[in-house]
Amino acid sequence: MPTAPDPPPPPAAPSAPQPAAPTPAGTPFKLIFPSIMLPMFLAVVDQTIVATALPAIAASTGQIERAPWVVIAYLIAATVAAPVYGRLGDAFGRRRLLLVALGVFLVTSLLCAAAPTIETLALARVLQGLGGGGLMTLSQALVGEAVPPRERARYQGWLAGVAVTANSFGPVVGGVLTEHFGWRSIFLVNLPIAVLAMGLVLRLPVRKVERTAWASDPLGLILFAAFVTTTLLSLEQVQRANFSALPFAAALLAAAALSLVLLILQERRTPSPLIPLGLLKQPAIWRADAMAAFHGGALVSLITFLPVYLGVVRGASPSTMGLVLVPLTIGIGTGSLLTGRLMASTGYTTVFPSIGLGLAAVNLVVLAIFANDLSITALGGMMFWNGACMGTVMAVVQVTVQSAAGPGRLGEAAGSVQFSRSIGAGLGTAVIATLLFGWLALHNPEALAVFSGLAQRGRDAAASLPPERLAAVQGDIRDAFRVVFLGIAGFTLGGLALALTNPLRRI
Q1: Nearest to 356 by CA among 376, 371, 380, 339
Q2: pLDDT class for 17, splitting at 50, 70, 90?
Q3: For the purposes of burial, counting CB atoms within 10 Å of the CB of 270, is it exposed (0-12), middle (13-18) or buried (19 or more)?
Q4: Helix/strand/coil (H, E, C) string of 99-154?
Q5: pLDDT for residue 425 is more than 50
Q6: What's the pLDDT tens digit per position in 241-273?
Q7: Whether pLDDT at 101 is above 90
Q8: Which contiguous run of DSSP H or E holds residue 28?
Q9: Distance CA 229, CA 505 (A)
């Protein structure tokens, strides 16, 4: 006899929801954060620690006119290398490329410490920049690879705090090491940190993620290097208080423009472009990158010219200048950490820099009008507030570009931010320098000469001027710095406009 069919099984009870893992692979915060923190710390601190040692390097080598190349060589190489590492990391693995960058940075730090002449030191710094350019880009990309979009904001806030700490830490430690152990020690101190960072990165799990195809683009790399080199060198010439350097700067800018046109043509036709033009066409990405450029221009210009103002106009000592800058760096770290937490909890992004940059612009306008009437304590308070407002930008920019780019192109996205910030910082500082020197040259050429003397030799440079002429010159210099602070406020307003129009407003 045929048997009756078995009754259908009862519907399964719905399973209890599982808590979301802290990362796609469950990697804990205590493992991810140190692994990305130390490489970024190395990348940032190396740019500031060397600046303090430049006088000692120049005295040791006897070639003070070539000492700036120790900084410029690294900056050019790191700016070129940043997007290259991002592209290679997307193709071959970001953890693997970060280890390569750390290895290059470690070996070249030894070469820098052993350099017998300023020329060999500059060459070693080029090689060191080729390693250092990958540290920040790949650290940022690894956050995007290991952490869900909403949680990235918290990590990016912490990373911004690390960068600010390194900026404050570098000049102090550079001065101590140079004074007590010689300038070569500033490069040797990188070695134990780099070894520890490599050990931590090796502990990160190897992830199976989407990889982008790779094909070499040597012509694109050459044109990109030519564009970066001529651009940064032209900006360095513009920043000098010397109008005789302007023709050379103009020639360099023309070469940079030609390199950029040829680069765009090359990247459009190559099957595997070094510069992701398709990625940069996305409104969310190009607006975020442009906001990073405006932010870099405003922040670096403020850090550069505020001490000049304090020394030339207020006659402040170097220690007083440092005391006014410390609240600015603390404010940036505070704003970055707070913004990261708010983004992680709410999912909102550009609303925070929309508020922060607007308040920073107002703060800078007040500074332009009332700076000469404020006490040093009040200036420090305004710098903390300004830093906290500007700290709303960095984490938002990284999270925005990584979310818009997708998991397969995180390195390219992080590289585009780093490149935009570097170019914006150089261009912004050059523009502000041009405003300062141009204003003085147009209104009172004598004030420009006195300003140059005050900046180089202190208050004694104006001792020979009659009191009435000195008062007129000082008034023109104060007016020129009003223009400087208003120019920096203009950069923040440019960033504000980009934040308000970015279509990716929530993640």
Answers
A1: 339
A2: very low
A3: middle
A4: HHHHHHHHHHHHHHHHCCCHHHHHHHHHHHHHHHHHHHHHHHHHHHHHCCHHHHHH
A5: yes
A6: 566 667 888 888 899 899 989 988 888 888 777
A7: yes
A8: none
A9: 35
List Cβ neighbours of 356 (8 Å cut-off, separation of 6 or more): 335, 339, 388, 389, 390, 391, 392, 393
At which residue do the structure tokens 């710098």 appear? 383
416 touches 405 (CB < 8 A): no
> What letter represents residue 370's amino acid?
F
Name residue, tokens 């210099």. 477
- Judge whether residue 162 has pLDDT over 70: yes
Written as six digits, the tokens of 502 are 């970015």
For the record, the structure tokens of 416 come out as 């585009």
Single out the residue of 109, 110, 107, 105 nearest to residue 136, CA to CA.
Answer: 105
> Average pLDDT of 207-214?
63
Q: How far apart are the first and last CA of the chain?
A: 63
Indicate yes or no: pTM above 0.90: no
Helix, strand or coil, per DSSP, at residue 506: strand
Q: How far is CA 303 from CA 216, 483, 503, in A?
A: 39, 16, 31
C-alpha 98/C-alpha 260 separation (Å) is 28
CA distances, 322 to each of 216, 227, 307 (Å): 46, 34, 8
In angstroms, the Cα distances linking 75 to 16, 43, 105, 260 are 53, 11, 14, 19
Calpha distance 110→190 (Å, rounded): 9
With beta carbons less than 8 A apart as the criterion, state whether 119 and 73 touch: no
